[in-house]
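Anyone opening a protein record will find just a pair of labelled lines. A complete record is shown below as an example:
=====
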Amino acid sequence: MTDLTHFNQAGEAHMVDVGGKATTDRIAIAEGTIVMLPETFNLVEQGGHKKGDVLGIARIAGIMAAKKTADLVP
């Protein structure tokens, strides 16, 4: 196993200069699970929920979160 470059001898995290490192393409895959009562699912599916367009709002929230990934996951 190679040495971990982002930790010092005491095991503390420290900054590493990556200025000379080549740019690489990466792919991230995310997965989630939503649990709800069948009655709730039916309301969301039919658009009859008091909160409005639940799926549309969730879609926008997901897009906004994806745009902030670089801020949230350094």
User: Anything to note?
Assistant: Helices lie at 38-46, 54-67, 69-72. The mean pLDDT is 85.
